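WARN no homologs supplied; continuing
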Amino acid sequence: SGHFAKVISEIKKEAPNITIEVLIPDFKGDDEALKKVIDAKPDIINHNVETVPRLYSEVRPQANYHKSIDLLKKVKAMNESIFTKSGIMLGLGETTDEILEVFNDLRKADCDFLTVGQYLAPSSVHHPIVEYVHPDKFKMLREEAYEMGFLYVASGPFVRSSYMAEEALNHGKKQQ
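OK structure emitted
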């Protein structure tokens, strides 16, 4: 976390008007580590949930869904002016109800921005692709997410967690 904080601080010294989004791990639940990153004041702190809770043991065996949701809550509790962002990949075998439940959990954590993209297996030893999700479903999920109160939602087959960071920030600022 110290490295994240130092990089953020150094970038701000060199380019004070730049938008900084940082994608962080859960720091194994270490609140002091998280606080170091928050105190560096990036514009957006991103921590991806990646998938639905039912699939965590297969897809993210070293992670904990509830710890990820709690991390996003803690960011807002420590500094409500920092935007929070998370993302989920589709096509791993999740149901629409499970996806919407994740969206609901993220909103309860006051998560501001959401990315929803298609999972693509990086190799044959990774979790297989169960489904190529139709673009209409991404559109429907974007609409549902906005109805739940997200300030910015990027949802589509080619969306990734760092997708359109500055656009998300500008849109989020307008919504506040």
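The helical segments are 2-14, 31-39, 56-59, 65-78, 96-108, 135-148, 165-175.
OK
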